[in-house]
Amino acid sequence: MQIDVVDLQKMRAAALRHVGPYQQIGPVFEKLVGIAIVSGWFSLPEVRTMLVTYDCPMSVPAAELRSDAVVVVGADSVLPVDVDELVIPAGQYVHGVHIGPYSGLPDSWKAFNDAVRGGGYAVEGSTALEMYVSDPGSCPPDELRTELYLPLKR
Questions:
Q1: Cα of 74 vs its chain's centroid, Å
Q2: What share of the chain is helix, strand, coil (3-state, %, to 5)?
């Protein structure tokens, strides 16, 4: 997998927590998307949907893995009481791209992590970002674009 280093700006996001296997976060995303539709967030220029994971699945039991379903919102967006605010810090991130169905993401993450290790990058902690660039409702599954990010140590 081809990787590069990019600078991300600080992002303010609405988040809902999931604890358990990462691939079981679907219902949490559905709930957050419903909130985003009602709140009008999808009309904002900065809107992005993301998965933020916090634990390494190689060292944390699947039932204890922490992740957030995330919608990036504006600085002035009002968050409902049952939605957490998450600030994704600005900084340098190693970046890769997965093209294809979401079912292929585990293999892409493995290739991405192998490329990061092989490139000698010093990654900060175990937080990872998965940004969904394509709209799965209008994009063919084989063309879905998902960007992968790992924060670099400062």
A1: 17
A2: 30, 35, 35
Instruction: Give pTM, 2 decimals.
Output: 0.94
* Residue 50 near residue 101, CB atoms below 8 Å: no
Place of tokens 């699945």: 57
Please identify, in words, the CATH class of the domain defined by 4-151.
Answer: alpha beta
Domain ranges of the chain: 4-151
pLDDT tens digits for 89-139? 999 999 999 999 999 999 999 999 999 999 999 999 899 999 999 988 899
Give the closest residue to 5 by CA, choosing from 149, 154, 110, 113. Answer: 149
Q: Which of 97, 69, 102, 100 is nearest to 84 (CA)?
A: 69
Helices (H) and strands (E) in the chain, counts: 2, 8
Q: Quick one: tokens of 104?
A: 């292929």
**Two structure tokens written together for 53:** 């994971």
Rounded to an integer, what distance in angstroms lies between the CA atom of residue 148 and that of residue 114?
A: 13
